Amino acid sequence: MKRIFLLLLSTSLGLIVSCGGSNSSAGKPGTKGELIPREKSRSFVAERPYGMVYIPSGSFVAGLADEDRTNTSEKAPLTTVTVSSFFMDEAETTNAEYRVFVNYVRDSIARTLLAEAAGDGFGSGKGKGKSITDYAYIDNTANQGNLTPYEEYLENQGSRDGYDASKKLDWKQPLHWSTKNYPDVEYAEVVESMYLPASDRFNGQKMIDASKLKYSYQWEDFGSAIQNKERGANYIKRESLAVYPDTTVWVKDFSYSYNEPMFEQYFWHNAYKSYPVVGVTWDQARAYCAFRSKLKSDYNESLKKKKQRPLNFRLPTEVEWEYAARGGLENATFPWGGPYLMDDRGCYLANFKPTRGNYLEDEKKGTYAFTGPSKKFRKNGFGLYDMAGNVSEWTVSEFNNSSYQMTNSMNPSTKGQADTKKSVRGGSWKDIGAMLMTGNRDWERKDSARSYIGFRTIQDIPEAAVKPKRRTN
């Protein structure tokens, strides 16, 4: 009797388990009813972006441990903190890299204007820029029979989140910027509208109207959303801002100084292509980060075999920047250690102002009158160049004299979109050696552009994506 009861019980359990059938999310048939995830077991490996180096997670003593030679209130008290791993640009963003951003904005605006001027006729996609009609929006109806259900849905909706699926630019069509290559009068009228009017030109030289080069992007205000315990469209912020650097900073920053050649040549001349971009505000630096994130995301989406959505690029926090600048060295005065500003051959280890009024001292010692090319000085222990001198760098952090005391010890950060004072780190070509210390703090207003402030970007890494050699200072 006991054996019969056990047999019936096991049969009943079998019936209960089988009710889920093959559609159960708990596991595949044959897993004996165990909860087994269906994701592939292959581990995720972070892909290092081009031009970036890996910064391992670790803890260190943040703040100015050395003598405060400037005697300012910006001095940070010593505090032990922990920082997660991330990728960081090995050098500051250069003029050539930022010009890619500016040219993208210029081209996208030009293509939109040309598509609007082309009228309702759709481009065939087979033209070679021989007339303005080649720049019309791509005709999606030609491939109506090949659309996926989702693409048909978008066609029926007309638009999604401000994006009109029927107005897709044809980026395969070549743009002609030389007047001798304009294909027709309508094309000339559109392209010429992007230049300054003849009455505003100097010596008749054609120049793009920089005020028209505006980049539109969006970001989510996580701080407000978390504070209000909700998510949604109310916290998606949309911005559109001019992205061309303020080249006049070379004149405005220095009264009674002849810096006109730098104003006229620094950003666009190829002689300065490997020099760090300057004249960029905090908001423009963030827009560049958004563009770089979009560039990588669009590429991944274009692949036949879709890659995982890449993590976004952003500006580093103040503490992340300081941790990276120290290069894994304990209590490092400078990125190369210290306390000296020269190596054993008598050459300077960064681009800065050695003495009052003397920006060069000796050509053989390696400093520059203004900024210098990237990667000309020794890299630190993490493989980062110019973390001291050349140009100071924007961080995402709000500047506050007590921020090192009031923030959390795990990934400390003070971020506020409305806060106008932002932390700037590293010292620049115009600063004395004391300003180059890894623990030295400075700030600038977010809407200010300077001839001595640039930036570099970082990308977060999931902690489980790598096996870091953890550092503890």
Verbal overview:
- The protein is of the alpha+beta class and 473 residues long.
- It has three domains: 1-42, no CATH class; 53-94 and 243-473, paralog of FGE (formylglycine-generating enzyme) (Alpha-Beta Complex); 97-194, no CATH class.
- Helices cover 23% and strands 13% of the residues.
- β5 and β6 form a beta hairpin.
- The protein starts with a helix and ends with a strand.
Q: Name the structural class.
A: alpha+beta
CATH topology call of the largest domain:
paralog of FGE (formylglycine-generating enzyme)
How many helices? The count is 10
CATH architecture of the largest domain: Alpha-Beta Complex
Largest sheet: 4 strands, antiparallel
Termini gap: 71 Å
Shape: globular
Residue windows where pLDDT falls under 50 for at least 5 positions: 4-22
Helix content: 10-25%
Protein name: Gliding motility-associated lipoprotein GldK
Domain Sulfatase-modifying factor enzyme-like: 51-458
Signal peptide: 1-21
InterPro entries: CTDL_fold, Glid_motil-assoc_lipo_GldK, Sulfatase_Mod_Factor_Kinase, SUMF_dom, SUMF_sf
